[in-house]
Design brief:
The protein has 12 helices and 13 strands. The chain has 354 residues and is α/β, with parallel strands linked by helices. Helix 1 packs parallel to helix 2 and helix 5 packs parallel to helix 6 (155-173). It is an enzyme of class 5 (isomerase).
């Protein structure tokens, strides 16, 4: 979608120091918008700010704030005149959410309630929200369309579902409030500069960062969770989507909520299912690295296949994913090889083309 008619805006990006938020800051800046990041850095590094500055060519304003701190959030809105908010700030590890459900409900839902209250008080009435394909649970059929049964299967997924419902209720109660719920499938890859990317803490839960760390020599082999699914090669199928495509969709969704009378809930995926083994082989081609693996037991709670019907996002936003799985692997590896230990241990000056 073209942004030609959209005047530059000031956007509050909550969780903007994180993986998807940082890429979206770049996409917003590319369209001439000003971003203010609000983040508590519980799952990100302040070093991302220098990297963003290098990509954007200008310093990025960032406020260290926990969305659960109502006074601090209100202060943020008192200091700036935001046109809209993008809300990425959440804890997102499924396993951890099962062990610490109260923390997940407190952080994700408590933080969102504070944010929505502050928005209302400041008359900021446009929101783009990070939802997830996790709201579909184990889908009855694929590709998954937006009207499919919603069935979150873990506390993390339930927080996403509840936040979607909360935002929906607010839109019904306040007719001038507009929101876009973006249901991401499996975001992977990195900005082509290699300056920003996914930097998980500890052992990665997700497939692509795990593969990257095996390739980098940080882990000895990949455990493939299940080789007996009813899929062509027996391994699980997902819809991997390049984070740069995802970031661009946020700008399109922002423009939609600014100009439209309607709210929006859309899937963001490629519509193409890729198995674990297909991803491993694509990564090997892209990186030239051998990825040793072992097929182990299924991971509890995993579905055999989940991939999107992304046609609604195309119809409403004019958006479609451009990058294929080879490009996702190429950019994930570029980031990993330039930053073998992520942000914290690398110098902000070493990575990237300079
Ligand atoms: P991330 O952890 O890299 O980014 C989230 C950011 O929010 C982090 O910088 C973290 O420090 C910050 N944050 C968390 N709680 C906060 C709070 N209370 N106050 C202020 N800042 C807070 O995660 P990501 O992968 O970039 O995901 C962004 C959003 O997209 C999340 O809401 C996540 O649930 C959702 N999502 C992610 C995926 C995925 O696979 N990465 C898939 C679907 C949906
Ligand atoms: C992908 C495939 C695994 C790791 C999760 C969340 C979801 C969303 C995205 C936020 C599956 C297999 C994985 C490994 C493996 N996040 N795998 N070995 O499970 O589709 O989705 O992240 O909203 O909520 O549940 O992604 O990357 O963990 O797994 O074999 O070491 O890779 O079984 O088939 P998933 P994933």
């Amino acid at each position: 979608m073209q942004m030609a008619e959209q005047a530059p805006m000031c956007i509050l990006v909550c969780g903007g120091a994180g993986y998807i938020g940082s890429h979206t800051c770049v996409a917003l800046a590319e369209q001439g918008h000003r971003v203010v990041i609000a983040d508590n850095f519980t799952n990100s590094s302040p070093r991302v700010l220098l990297r963003l500055q290098r990509i954007m060519g200008t310093p990025v304003e960032c406020v260290r704030v926990d969305l659960r701190n109502r006074t601090a959030v209100a202060r943020l809105f008192a200091r700036h005149r935001f046109h809209a908010v993008m809300h990425f700030a959440a804890m997102k590890a499924v396993g951890e959410s099962c062990a610490k459900p109260l923390e997940y409900f407190d952080n994700n839902i408590g933080g969102t309630i504070n944010l929505l209250q502050a928005m209302q008080e400041a008359s900021v009435e446009r929101l783009v929200f990070s939802s997830s394909a996790t709201v579909y649970g184990d889908p009855e059929r694929v590709p998954v369309a937006e009207h499919s049964r919603l069935d979150a299967m873990n506390p993390y997924g339930r927080t996403k579902l509840i936040m979607e419902q909360l935002i929906g209720d607010l839109c019904r109660a306040c007719s001038s409030f507009r929101a876009a719920n973006l249901r991401y499938f499996n975001p992977v890859g990195a900005h082509p500069s290699g300056l920003i990317g996914e930097d998980p803490t500890g052992v990665p839960n997700n497939l692509m960062p795990y593969i990257c760390q095996v390739a980098a020599g940080r882990r000895s082999k990949l455990s493939i969770f299940g080789g007996d699914y009813p899929t062509p090669d027996g391994t699980g199928i997902r819809d991997y989507i390049h984070v740069v495509d995802l970031a661009r969709a946020h700008v399109d969704a922002l423009e939609y909520v600014m100009r439209s009378d309607a709210n929006l809930t859309v899937n963001l995926g490629t519509g193409r299912g890729v198995s674990v083994l297909e991803l491993v082989h694509a990564f090997e081609r892209a990186s030239g690295c051998h990825i040793p693996y072992e097929i182990v037991a299924r991971r509890p709670g995993d579905a055999a296949q989940v991939y999107a019907d992304p046609s609604l996002a195309n119809r409403l936003l004019g958006w479609r994913a451009r990058f294929d799985i080879d490009e996702m692997c190429r950019d994930a590896w570029h980031w990993q090889s330039l930053n073998p230990d992520g942000y914290e241990r690398g110098s902000p000056e070493v990575a990237g083309p300079g």
